[in-house]
Amino acid sequence: QELRPKSLDIKQEELGDMVEKEMASTSEAIEDAVRRIEEMMSQARNESSGVKLEVNERILNSCTDLMKAIRLLVMTSTNLQKEIVESGRGAATTQEFYAKNSRWTEGLISASKAVGWGATQLVESADRVVLHTGKYEELIVCSHEIAASTAQLVAASKVKAEKSSRNLGRLQECSRNVNEMAANVVASTKSGQEQIEEKDTMDFSGMSLIKLKKEEMETQVKVLELEKRLEGERVRLGELRKQHYALAGAYDATEDGEAKPAPAPRRGILRKPPLAQKP
Known about the structure:
Elements: H1 12-47, H2 50-88, H3 94-100, H4 102-130, H5 136-158, H6 166-202, H7 209-250, E1 251-253, E2 259-261
């Protein structure tokens, strides 16, 4: 009983309904994500300014574009699924078709859940970044996760779709658009992080003379430490290269698999050749 697939515990009509419910739930999650991003945008404009406002707006705008692309992807995927069911079920009902193709149905449900979950996580990460309680890396990871979930949804839909299907072509185009928008989120996040970190580390306007002198001395110490570490790493790199060249050129493999020392270079091979005598 424990080894039985979970899908066997679900009735035919329940499995068919689960697909529609999951796609509807994913659409609702995306709509909610768009609303939350709009709320975050207005909140950011009221509570931040300058560089931080510019960074927040750029990140949230890229997240909005990504959500719109995901919404179109889900709508297109839903249309393709209806087309697949209508062309493949024959005299069977929709629920019977889903039950007969339970593995494929479970793949659709799993992919749809992954897309909805990724969108929710992206919004939560963006919220924390705007409030300065989260990490920029979270947004990058969520963007990669959404791209992977999108590929999973396209792959699951492609299994049963006709190659000449227009909806399949639209779905693949939507998938490429989602990947592009996810890449924009990553790019805007990285550039925003660099702007914020540069501003935070280079803003000395509120420091006193004593504080500035202390920061100057601490920075000098860090510079000396980094220079010493860099020198040590260069020496280490040189020794590693020497050992590499020694191991690579010391032995030549023989025909029977044994190793023999490589022939020593002839003396004077690098000498300047004698000038040609006049005839």
